[in-house]
Amino acid sequence: RSHPHPPTRVRPLTCTEARRGDRRVVHSLGGGTVHVSAARHDATFGFSAVFDAGASQEAVFEGSGMRQLVEQAVDGFSCTVFAFGQTGSGKTYTLMGPLAQSEDQPAAPALLGLMQRSFTCLLEQSRSRSSDLALSASYLEIYNEQVRDLLSPGPPCALPLRWSKTHGFYVENQLSVDFESLEAIADLLLQALDLLLAGSQRRRTSAHALNKHSSRSHALLTIHIRSRAVSARARRARTSPPMRIPQPSTCPSKQGTLCFVDLAGSERVKETGSSGELSVEANNINRSLLALGHCISLLAKPQGKRAHIPYRDSKLTRLLARSLGGSGITLMVACISPSSRCLSETLSTLHYASRARRVTARP
Ligand code: ADP
Ligand code: MG
Question: What is its subcellular localisation (predicted)?
Answer without folding.
Answer: Cytoplasm, Cytoskeleton
